[in-house]
Amino acid sequence: MGWPKGATPTPTGDLPVNAFAQGLDHPRWIYALPNGDVLVAETNAPPRSDDGKGIKGWVADKIMKRAGANIPSANRITLLRDSNGDGVADTRSVLLSHLNSTFGMALVGDWLYVADTDALLRFPYRAGEIMIKAPGQKVIDLPAGPIDQHWTKNIIASPDGPKLYITVGSNSNVGEDGLEAEQRSARILQLDLASAKQRPYATGLRNPNGMASQPQSGALWVAVNERDELGSDPVPDYMTAVKDGGFYGWPWSYYGQHVDARVRPPNPAKVAQAIAPDYALATHGIAGSHVLQRPPASGRARQRCVHRSARLMEPPPAQRLQSHLRAVCGGQAQRLAAGRTHRVSGRKRPRARATRRRGHRQCRSAAGGRRCG
Questions:
Q1: DSSP for 233-265?
Q2: Are the C-beta atoms of 219 and 241 separated by less than 8 Å?
Q3: Fewer CB near the terminus (10 Å): N or C of the chain?
Q4: Which residues, 6+ apart, have CB-to-CB distance to 313 below 8 Å?
Q5: How many domains does the chain have?
Q6: What are residue 74's phi and psi, to 5 degrees?
Q7: Which residues pair with residue 201 across a beta bridge?
Q8: Are 341 and 349 in contact (CB under 8 A)?
Q9: Taking all residues of the chain, what is their mean pLDDT, rounded to a whole number?
Q10: Residue 310 per-residue DSSP state
Q11: Helix, strand and coil percent figures for the chain, each rounded to 5
Q12: H-helix or E-strand containing 195?
C-alpha cells in the first residue's frame, strides 16, 4: 500500500494502527461483511487499445508505473478473517476469481452483488464461507466499452435493501473524446432488484467513487473525483448528499455553476441546472497538508478549508464536520476572501503571490503567509 516496512500512519490520541493484511495485489476497495470478515477487491483497469499512445498517454503510462498501478488486474475478491481479534487477519482465501476489473461489493440477503467494470453480477452467499464455487449470474450490463477511462463501478444497497446504487464514471476528463461517448456515463444509477429496472438517479458526476448512507435519514452521499489538467490550479474534489434527479455540472461546469471553457460546445442551460456540492475536499492530484477553496454560492463567497481527504474518509455528522471546518480554517477563510484573484475558465479564483530571493523560488499563499521552496 506504499508504506515502508514497519511504518504506519500516526493516529490521533491512543488509537493503535497496525497492518491487517499485507502482500495484496493492487487492492482497490474493501467491504466488511456482517460477521466481521473483510472482502478486498484486488483489481486494476482493463486493458485498452489506446493505452500509452501519444504524448499524453506516454506521460500517463509513466505516472502509473511510478505509482505501481500499471500492472495486469488480479480480477479477484479475497476474504480476510481475524478469528482471534488481535487486529491481524489470520485467514486469507480467494472468495471469487476470474472477474473483470471488479470493484464494488454489496451483500443483500443471501446474495453477494459484485460490480465488474462491464456488468453487475450476483453470487449465492452463506455466512462464514470462505470460497464461493457457484457461478455468478449477470444482473445487468454496465457502461464500459473501448474507452472506459474511469472504470471502477461501485455499488451500495439502499438501507431497506430493495435497491442498489451504482456509480459510473466518465469516459474522459472533460468530454474531449466527444459527448456522444458519454451517453450513459458520469452518473449514479438506481437499480430495482426485484424488476432489474434501472434509471439515472443523479448525473453530471465526473468520477463518483465512495458511497454511504446517512444513518439517521438514509440519504445517499458520495465522494467525487473532479477534473484534471488545469496545471497548478485544479478544482476541488468533493463530498455531497445526492439529490434524486440532481445534475452536478460535468462536463460543462464544476462545483456548481463554474463554467469550464474547455468543453465544446458550451451548454448554458445545463450549467444553470448544476447543483453545488456540500463539501470541498483536497484535489486528488495535489499533495499537501490542507487545501483552501473559495467557491461562491447563493451570491456570496463560501470558504472551504479542508484537511486532505484522508482525514475525511469517515466523515462525522454534519454538525461536527461543520465545526471541524471552522476550527481548521480559523481566520484564514477571511484572509482568503481578501486575497488577489486571477481568472480560470472565466471565473475568479484565489492565486498565490510568488517571489524570488537568493536564487530560490518562494511562494506565499494569499490565505495565510504559507511559504514553499
A1: -PPPEEEEEPPTTEE--TTTEETTTEE-TTSSS
A2: yes
A3: C
A4: none
A5: 1
A6: -70, -25
A7: none
A8: yes
A9: 79
A10: G
A11: 10, 35, 55
A12: none
The verdict on residue 86 lying in a domain is yes
Asked if residue 6 belongs to a domain, the reply is no
- The 8-class DSSP code of residue 98 comes to S
In the numeric block, which cell numbers belong to residue 123? 453470487
C-beta separation of 27 from 41 below 8 A: yes
pTM of the entire predicted model = 0.74
Cβ 230 vs Cβ 212: under 8 Å: no
Which spans in the chain are helix H?
Answer: 54-66, 268-273, 318-329, 332-337
Instruction: Output the pLDDT for position 366.
Output: 35
**Residue of 114, 217, 103 lying closest to 160 (CA atoms):** 217
Please report where in the chains the cell 472533460 appears, as a residue. 174
Separation between Cα atoms, residue 336 and residue 365, nearest integer Å: 9
Report the CATH number that the domain containing residue 35 is assigned in CATH.
2.120.10.30
Assigned domain for 68 exists: yes
> Are 193 and 163 in contact, with CB atoms under 8 Å apart?
yes
How confident is the model over 95-141, as pLDDT tens digits?
A: 999 999 999 999 999 999 999 999 999 999 999 999 999 999 999 99
* Structural domain of 160: 27-289
How far apart (Å, rounded) are the C-alpha atoms in residues 121 and 179?
28
Is residue 2, in this structure, part of any structural domain at all? no
Instruction: Return the SS3 of 61.
Output: helix
